[in-house]
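Example 4.3 (complexes with small molecules)
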Amino acid sequence: MDHEFWHERWQRGEIGFHRAQVHPILTAQIAHLVAPPATVFVPLSGKTLDMKWLLDEGYQVVGVELSAAAIEAFMEEHQLAYTCTQQGPFQVYQAPGITLYQGDFFELQPVHLEACHAWYDRAALVALPVAMRQEYNQHLQQILPPSAKGLLITVEYPEGYWKGPPFAIWEAEVRTAYEDRYQVHSLPSQPGFIEGGDSQVLEHSYLLEPKA
Ligand SMILES: C[S@@+](CC[C@H](N)C(=O)[O-])C[C@H]1O[C@@H](n2cnc3c(N)ncnc32)[C@H](O)[C@@H]1O
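Answer. The structure with S-adenosylmethionine bound is encoded below.
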């Protein structure tokens, strides 16, 4: 999954991961972690409608996304008046309540996320092959404030059912990645969504709360 893979997907409009509705797990769960006007980090954000829902609820949003096309589509589809400036390795798109860093997640530093109270990971961790996931989990924990809480959604499906992305991630992997620093609350799985997928897919979500 190099950068070119994702740029090409955006260029060709192959964005089956993009949902036409706000994710019901976000709307049901985020208030259990943080209340508006808390700042929520959305890694590998695409142009998800979830960010608009968060803004409309009164949350502040910080995102990171490789594709400028995705970020500009988000701003334009929601008619947000935005500015764009260069800051180090990022083009920074800003509109009231939202800052989207266009560039590589792995270039983010703690200073970029110092205002964040929570993060929301849907189709970010599962977008990465296993070799990158460990690095992603470590970097995420290094750049977030230690008090930040997480809402993570993974997908699960039988081996051989789908090539990925999204990749199936089982609870043991989530616990290995997060349990040192977070209480990992597993929520009941529910029928999931993969472009062209069917009932063999489950979505499994987790609330991650820093250990005292
Ligand atoms: C599967 S999509 C999910 C998008 C969004 N979370 C959603 O729910 O619609 C993964 C996104 O991550 C972006 N991406 C992949 N690798 C990235 C990286 N290293 N840094 C920033 N964004 C990245 C891709 O361009 C793509 O938009």
